[in-house]
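User: Run a structure prediction on this.
Assistant: Running it now.
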Amino acid sequence: MKSIRLKVATLLGVLSCFGSVHATEARIPLVPLPSVVDFTDGDGWGVGLGLSVEYESAYEGSDEFQFEVDPAGGVQWRTGEQVFFWAGEAIGWRALAGGAWLFQASVGYEEGREESDSDDGRLDGLGESSSGVAFLLELRHALAEDWRYFLDGRISTGKVGTLGIFGVGTCLGCQPDGTGWEVGAAVTFHDGERANRDFGVDTKQSIDSGISETDVDSGYRSVGLNVNYRDYLSESWQVFGEALYEHYGSDVSDSPISRNNYEAEIGIGLIYVF
């Protein structure tokens, strides 16, 4: 992991220098945070289209890593201090209140784990875990001017179970146009349904796979660190990067599904903002 983090820092550092040279006229996002995407420039429509490349754990708890190419960007409509958006498989709304409170609500589709996610056959016999619609509610509160420090709370719930994420963050060298670095730390909790969806093994799965039957309790899931970076290479081209490290609690790490006691990913992408 040390080498992975070093490569991420080096790559994003180079991009940061490149972006600062080519940055042009600043846009005005809803909040100046790199992790809160805003393609608008005041009221009206905002559209961004692009691609991202990620190197990530093949599935939660895996010791296999893989590259994945995904679309990036979305369509947004802003009126005052509200933004309605469609990005990937999610649609939602976010709003700024009192200059220091950011509310977000969205609904999206969350895909489950498949046996083929493991090239080494470590998921054979487990079948496909549940997929379905998930509802996300998020609240952020600025602790300092320009969102230099903030608190973050999120709850995701639906057919796939419930996750609760509570964290703190800081924006480093962030600009009013939403560019710069953002670093956060968070603690994650899950209910029994989500815990066993990701790390449990029921009776049928145990018989089919030969893996010991396992029931994972609800409660503490993990603690993690995340880094977000965003900058403009030109008036329309935007570059972004992200890195995540999540360290599992003992209950999750002890599951036979977990080949590692952590999950990690790094990614980089380009978006053309219309």
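The first strand starts at residue 44 and ends at 57.
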